[in-house]
Design brief:
This protein is an all-beta fold. It has strands spanning about 1-10, 15-25, 35-40, 45-50, 50-55, 55-60, 70-75, 80-85, 85-105, 110-115, 120-125, 135-150, 155-160. It has no helices and 13 strands.
């Protein structure tokens, strides 16, 4: 974006004499940098727990809260994603100001909580019908951790985007 103010003496042939002026400018990037991990592009299978991929570390828990030996990318109902089991903790590599999660459930809706330095900064519960992907968005300063809490072992994380 630039503003130019130029001054010169007019004549019948156009401008003449010295040119005086001010050139002011500002570089602006109207785009937001966002990094996404699309679990639909990752091979179906088991991975170590915790598992670091795409700038985040994922830790899956069973119904007792115990850490599982592996996390699993699987396909259900035509959707491929990371199984949230009975609890999925997501530690981000660096604090961010926005997070988008796309999830799908096949039984009861999951709740997602966002944290900044251990302090809760938001919580949302899915509202879409079973089998329908839904995107939840969080915006707050310094989000560094998310916790997905499915009531049943029937929720997949399809995509995680941070910006």
């Amino acid at each position: 974006i630039g503003v130019y103010r130029l001054r010169f003496d007019p004549s019948r042939e156009g401008g003449s004499g010295a040119v005086r002026g001010t050139i002011e400018g500002l570089l602006v990037c109207p785009c937001r940098e966002e990094r996404c991990t699309d679990f639909g592009t990752i091979a179906v299978g088991s991975y170590p727990n915790p598992w670091t991929v795409g700038g985040a570390t994922y830790l899956a828990r069973d119904h007792t809260g115990a850490v599982l030996p592996a996390v699993e990318v699987r396909t259900d109902g035509g959707h491929t994603g990371l199984n949230c089991v009975f609890g999925l903790e997501i530690a981000l590599a660096a604090p961010v100001s926005s997070v988008r999660l796309t999830l799908v459930h096949f039984a009861a809706p999951a709740t997602v909580e966002a944290y900044a330095g251990g302090v809760p900064v938001g919580a949302q519960t899915m509202t879409a019908a079973g089998g329908t992907p839904e995107t939840l968005t969080f915006a707050a300063a310094a989000i560094d951790r998310l916790v997905v809490k499915p009531p049943n072992n029937e929720t997949l994380l399809l995509e995680l985007c941070v910006g």
